[in-house]
Amino acid sequence: MAFQPPNNNKGQKILDELYQKKQFLLMKNPPPAQPPPQQVNDTMSPNQRTALQHAQQTSPGFYITQESSYGNLIIPVVPRF
């Protein structure tokens, strides 16, 4: 039996269904607004504080400070949906 590419109509139908489910879930549980900036505490080094403030001002993401074996001063937080 030779390989047959999937039917575009079937694939489009699946994508449409996924889009509708996504819209329904977003209406049911809207994403939270931009989280408040993390409180800067005294345990952070000046480099961590500067990096965290710069990232929060220039990026729509959310960052935390955490010790890293790779030398990263801040780590991005990626929510799971």
UniProtKB/TrEMBL annotation:
GO BP terms: DNA repair
Domain of life from the UniProt record: Eukaryota
Pro residues bias spans: 29-38
Secretion signal, residue range per the UniProt entry: none
Compositionally skewed regions (Polar residues) per UniProt: 40-58
Database matches in PANTHER family: SOSS COMPLEX SUBUNIT C
Family as reported in the entry's similarity comment: Belongs to the SOSS-C family.
Name of the molecule in the record: SOSS complex subunit C homolog
Species for this entry: Galendromus occidentalis
